[in-house]
Fold this sequence. Notes:
single chain, mainly beta, 5% helix, 41% strand, flat
Amino acid sequence: MCDQTDVVREVLGNVVSDNGRITINGEGCPADLAVTVETKIGDGYFPVIFEENGEGGHGNSRIIIELGPADHAREHSP
């Protein structure tokens, strides 16, 4: 098992919501396979974070869109 000291987090950038929703779709995927998520906190810049737990292998890394207070993302906004 991985303890939290092995977790690496890197801010990749931000996504912007101006309608209270974020749509996620892979490159080359049909639009009907897109996932739309309500932010539930409104509009703003939300940080996109790459997280890797250090163990390697499939399923041990992920992309996170933090839907916390928009103030958190302002330091990373363009």
